[in-house]
Write a structure and sequence with these properties.
Length: 457
């Protein structure tokens, strides 16, 4: 505790940015540990001096969003007013107490999660000409507390040698560079899958900062079921400095719950009425890990999907969906945290939301072109009509900017969503399958299995 005679809790932003925000609705983002709040409260009670909570670099922010963390897990977010670089400690304390429900916990299948020798994990970090972002993302991965991992930086169709030079200068034996000359995020992910070592491959984007426990939690969460093949984590906003960032965060909802969830094809969750098509519950491609053997066996990532293709996205939800359809379980564990750097200006936001719409449309077209899945989708719509209507209304509300930020965003940012979805469907159906697409991956797995006898290299 520090301060002028008062017990003082000092919090740092999750993403450092020296530039003061110019938008009066900017929200400061940080974390607070429940134990630290308890300690400050006890010190205040024993001294009779009110405790304070100071935020570093909070100039220009009107509100703060804090992720409340327990000893083992996050328990949820609190939103508080900021005055002179501080939030009211008593309000923080009361909100933390109110948040202290027990997030849904699961009993690991076959014993304690993480027991025994830790499995080696390969982290695949795909990038293209964003070396400055890559530096912070890679630094956070290398600071992970997991005991056995390596990193593959996949440089996808680079236009400069900046990434290659950076990795070479880094000279970290844990980091290896792979160059995938043809553009496309799915191609880059598949290159990482083929080059990975060990059973588990974790994927993370170059515009995130991962928590130091991120990799340990992803790895241990494979024990939450007897057939888990994929684990996704929470991807909260690391910055909300601009209207563009606030709009995107409200739209994607990547950090809605602190509960651990296990999804499997044969078990329809009561609170996911459009299952298995309500894919937002499964996670996002910025933060997930996968059983390499399963990923290869289902054909790898669809190279007609993802950034760098006409579809512009959808490769992550497609993989999640195919894993579930193949009879494997998918775990969403919010304790595996990767803070995301949302696009900060209107032009980049429009490009990103366009890509998400195209990707969703392309994936829907893929599902609709499969007779069995088209029939299942039709039955789901008939049985769950009211849920579908509610889902579409919610999506429409989230795509409409709030009045406070509307003037700062492109005028058609919400209304163009369905046009992009339709374009994405056409882009997928009209795109010929790449010559070196997913069947190559299945063949590679078969060859490796024949040589090693275990399917691992």
């Amino acid at each position: 505790m520090t301060g002028h005679g008062s017990p003082c809790l000092t919090l740092s932003p999750v993403l450092q940015n020296p530039v003061r925000p110019s938008w009066n609705g900017a929200i400061w983002i940080g974390e607070v540990w429940a134990d630290a709040v308890d300690s400050a409260d006890r010190a205040s009670a024993s001294t009779g001096v009110p405790a304070v909570c100071r935020l570093q670099n909070a100039e220009g922010f009107s509100r703060a969003r804090l992720l409340v963390r327990g000893r083992e897990r996050p328990v949820g977010f609190v939103d508080l007013a900021v005055t002179d670089g501080e939030v009211a400690f008593t309000e923080l304390r009361d909100r933390v107490v109110a948040q202290r429900h027990s997030p849904r916990e699961l009993v690991p299948a076959g014993g304690e999660a993480g027991a025994g020798e830790p499995a080696h994990v390969t982290v695949v970090l795909c990038t293209r000409d964003r070396t400055e972002m890559l530096k912070s993302a890679l630094a956070s991965v290398l600071a992970a507390d997991y005991p056995s991992f390596g990193v593959l930086v996949v440089d996808n169709a680079p236009r400069t040698d900046a990434t290659r030079q950076y990795v070479a200068d880094l000279a970290d034996p844990r980091v290896q560079l792979i160059t995938e000359p043809l553009p496309g995020l799915s191609r880059a992910r598949n290159a990482g899958l083929l080059a990975a070592r060990g059973d588990i491959v974790a994927f993370v984007d170059d515009d995130v900062i991962v928590d130091r426990h991120w990799l340990s939690i992803l790895a241990r969460s494979f024990a939450y079921g007897d057939s888990v093949a994929c684990v996704s984590g929470m991807v909260p906003a690391g910055e909300l400095r601009t209207p563009a960032q606030a709009y995107f965060d409200n739209r994607v909802g990547w950090s809605e719950s602190a509960d651990v969830r296990v999804f499997e094809w044969s078990q329809v969750p009561d609170d996911v009425p459009l299952f298995p098509f309500e894919v937002r519950h499964y996670g996002t491609g910025a933060n997930f890990a996968i059983d390499r053997r399963v990923a290869l066996a289902v054909g790898g990532f669809d190279e007609r999907l993802g950034a760098g293709t006409p579809a512009s996205g959808g490769e992550d939800i497609d993989m999640f969906f195919r894993i579930l359809r193949s009879g494997w379980q998918l775990v969403h564990d919010p304790a595996a945290i990767a803070w995301h750097r949302h696009r900060s200006n209107a032009d980049d936001l429009q490009t990103q939301t366009r890509g998400y719409g195209l990707g969703l449309g392309a994936w829907l077209a893929k599902v609709g072109s499969d007779p069995a899945m088209a029939m299942l989708a039709a039955k789901t719509v008939v049985r769950r009509r009211s849920a579908l209507v509610a889902h579409l209304r919610s999506a429409s509300r989230n795509s409409s900017p709030l009045p406070a930020m509307e003037a700062e965003l492109p005028p058609d940012i919400g209304s163009e969503t369905w046009r992009f979805v339709a374009k994405g469907a056409w882009a997928y159906l009209s795109k010929r399958r790449p010559r070196h697409a997913s069947p190559l991956l299945t063949g590679a797995l078969q060859r490796r299995t024949a040589v090693s006898g275990s399917g691992l290299s």
